[in-house]
Amino acid sequence: MIGADLVRLARAAGDEARVRQAADAVAEVAARNDLAWMTGEALRCRGLADDPEALQASVAAHGHGPRPLRLAMACEDAGSCLARHGQAERARPLLDRAAGGYERLGAARDLALRDGVRNVSLADIAAQVGIHKSALLRYFETREQIFLELTAEGWRDWARALHAGLDAAPPGSAALVADVFAGVFADRPLFCDLVAHTPLNLERNVSLESVREFKLVTLEEVVAICASLHRGLGLTEQQSVDVIATATSMAGALWQMATPGPEVQALYRSDPRLAHAVVDVGPRLVRVLTALLAGFRTEARSVGEELIQ
């Protein structure tokens, strides 16, 4: 969605050269990757430069891919564009389709926040939006695809917040970087829940195309975070990847430990012998990541000194 966001910003600023530059960059990436959603995004970016037909083509392209949120956004953009051009009748079904997509994903998100990802079934989501389960399967491959989509969007949201925190932190402090990581996770309980379920369940009951597109989303974010960690702490690419993998896997695991259910949680708190089982996610994540980052930073400096010598 970054390309579309850049096109919007450039249009708002009246910078037509940057509008074309952003749209051309996305088109170039799409040309190198045979993915329906990338083709759809390239068409969407071209369409946002005020080409209604390209936006219609974007809807068709996203309709062939496993990204329901992107399809909803493409429908919204195409419908809004048609409405601006006085074609209300053509716009209405597209806007209704977009609203339905947002509603279905929003229902899954709300239920997962309330009940936990593991406890939400396809029937629960269907009931929340007032349709039959079989109707919901017209829009999603499986229950797992719904949550994998939410996880992909969660990665983008988490990464944006992480970049903001890392950019504000003074360079060179492992403790501050660890605190930023932990704080961003603590503010996103659903994301913590989702990342724990991703390798266990969500990637296992969807199409290979869905898995590939999800991995490409996470790869894009990981590359950008690695660059931030290199600037702030001088970490190597491999060290940065290890930090991200450790942080996400630990946040997911610790969140599961910290939310065992009200009955089990009451048991832990009632018996002093079980006090160790009461997990406070943020502080523990800070301690582990501080030690890991400090060690990697020392290692990176040692390697740099050896190269100089």
Present the secondary structure layout.
Layout: H1 2-12, H2 16-32, H3 36-48, H4 52-62, H5 68-84, H6 88-115, H7 122-129, H8 133-136, H9 143-168, H10 174-186, H11 189-202, H12 208-233, H13 237-258, H14 262-270, H15 281-308
Helix pairs in contact: 1-2, 1-3, 2-3, 3-4, 3-5, 4-5, 5-6, 6-7, 9-10, 9-11, 9-12, 10-15, 11-13, 12-13, 13-15
Written account of the structure:
With 309 residues, this protein is an all-alpha fold. It has helices at 2-12, 16-32, 36-48, 52-62, 68-84, 88-115, 122-129, 133-136, 143-168, 174-186, 189-202, 208-233, 237-258, 262-270, 281-308. The longest helix has 28 residues, at 88-115.
What key phrases describe this protein's structure?
309 residues; single chain; 80% helix; mainly alpha
Give the biggest beta sheet: none
Q: Whole-Å distance between the termini?
A: 45 Å
Low-confidence stretches: none
What structural category characterises the helix and strand content?
Answer: mainly alpha
Query: Shape from CA axes?
Result: globular
Q: Report the count of strand segments.
A: 0
Strand proportion: under 5%
**Helix content bin:** over 70%
How large, in whole angstroms, is the Cα Rg? 22 Å
